[in-house]
Here is the input.
Amino acid sequence: MINAVGREIPQEILDATGKKVYEGAYAYDNYEYTKAAPTVHAVCDPKRSKLVENIHEALVKCGIRDGMTLSFHHHFREGDYVVNMVMEEIHNMGIKDITICASSLGKAHDPIVPYIEDGTIVGIQSSGVRGKIGEAISTGKLRDLAIMRSHGGRVRAIESGEVHIDIAFIGAPTCDEYGNMRAVGGKSDCGVLSYAMVDAEYADKVVAITDCLVPFPNIPASISMVHVDYVCVVDEIGNPAKIATGAAKPTTDVRKLMMAEYCTQFVIHTPYFKEGFSYQTGAGGASIASAISLGKIMEERGIHMGLGLGGITTPLSDLLAKGLIRKIVDTQDFDLGAIESIKNNPNHIEISASEYANPFNKGAYVNKLDFVILASLEVDVNFNCNVVVGSDGVITGAQGGHPDTAAGAKCTIVIAPLLQGRIPAICTNVTTVTTPGETVDVVITDYGIAINPRRQDLIECMKGVNLPFCTIEELRDKAYAMTGEPDPVQFGDRIVGIIEGRDGTIMDVVREIKPYEFK
Amino acid sequence: MEIKKAAMAGTLESSDAQVTVEPGSGSIDLTIESSVIHQFGRQIRATVLETLDRLEVRDAKVTVVDKGALDCTLKARVECAVYRSNDITENLPWGGVIR
Here is the structure.
């Protein structure tokens, strides 16, 4: 069946998953459903301790068995040790058929690939995967379909009961013996625990894993003791050097600086750039450069940002400290400056992933965005974006909040250099659709800027603005003139994963890759 | 042209290609390894074979390790390797067989 972004979703996949095809970005507005609920065990005896000796004891007390679904968060990013230490113990115990439901997985988790190969892990549900797990899925090693969800879509899937978490393992930079978790004050600070909040509320069993046990009460807590069954103290939950690095030096790459300047000029010529506007940007070089140059114009014109949202970096935190932003609302911290800011600045607030982006709550922050500045591996002539599957067909990225913010923002801007080596970023058809083109308004490249024809209002207000506007087809043609027209990747028949829309419908499927053959 | 001895041109940097030519055993034996093989393998092979043909190389073992080079780069690396195998590094036929 062909979905609303023109992708053929095979009937076998619809039957196997019970899902429907994607019908449009807001097709589920006003959708009625009953929330799921966990099965929990009361703690009324004050003499009972939640402390366990090690991961093994936590697993035994949680009743670990074959076929369970376990959840993890990715606030420790490429410095995470929690997933590997839990999965190693599960493997040693001979447990099989586990599904991992993580907010994201990265190269730090390469060590779990042997557990995919030996059947310890049979399912992966994540924002995305990088490194060897991506290769394992793309070469057909995972038994079940991998499910890639946006950050908001993951919360929806858990709250609606589409996925039920048996045990949530929550790495906490600090924790007390009763399970109050905070993301600051320890030796592996990550700033916020936003993605893990839904896990704490909807998992049957919740295990806090910390390397910094602090006196009770550890408050204000990101995650409260009322959700926590056990507390496990380990030597290290992560590598602090990889959890949060120092602020990235502002880019000196002239190509990125030029795209950043185009972006800033575009933003300030829209009607949304006015006192109190809201804004989200990523951590890429061009996005950061654009936030810095926008900050200068805000200062000159006395315009304040009412809301800065999302993954937070030092440049945005600096604008908050200068008084140019009124509130920063935070789900992830990309560097030490952002962590210091949330520790010290009362206008820098931690929120849950549901508040951030869940399409099935009663209104998330993304719905209030004026601007979001995003990147993309590929954008096609229908403005569809691909942020998960590499141009070689291997899963190598994550949806993150890309589809959520694109759907929410009044003005969604994607910045992409026209070529990455020989790979054209603007193409006829993206390898896989992750973000539908109907939610993408502008594409900024180093060779020109294309506005989505659906946005005649933006095209109208850019008349007379001195920027290199052209059509998206012209951008593609410029790219292909340099690289040649790329051949489609030679996929195998087997479907190894699905790209889930925010609302739980199927946006696209990911097929097994096969070795390249000259024809 | 004859491939008189093994010669190499190019690097393994991103957007470049490293081309090695060696004396062949009667025909063109081409091996391609590329970071963009899925999308551009066909075009890389066509470009390398065309360039060898233009230089009238008929007997060579050619190895291309491509890191996403554009066609113009691939051509230049093949030409350079072939001329190096003949120890020709000056008075190259610019605008003639080298285009």
